[in-house]
Design a protein that fits this description.
Elements lengths: L1 H67 L8
């Protein structure tokens, strides 16, 4: 009957050690993924900025060409 307590305490210690290992590993991996997410968000922001700039240039050229050709672009 004395061995049951020893086995349960060893099992509990093993579970706690395993849990702590995976908790530390999870936090470490999550910190690395945050750095990757920051880089990805920065790159995405650059793509959005370039896209909006190109869209603005395209609209300006389109309306400029339409006015040059004599089209009436005013709203009624």
């Amino acid at each position: 009957m004395d061995w049951v307590l020893i086995v349960f305490v060893l099992f509990k210690g093993l579970v706690f050690v395993t849990g702590m290992y995976f908790a530390i590993k999870w936090h470490y991996d999550r910190e690395k993924s945050w750095a990757d997410r920051r880089a990805l968000l920065g790159m995405g922001a650059k793509f959005v900025a370039v896209f909006l700039l190109l869209l603005l240039v395209l609209l300006t050229l389109t309306f400029g060409l339409a006015r040059t050709l004599g089209m009436d672009l005013s709203l009624p």
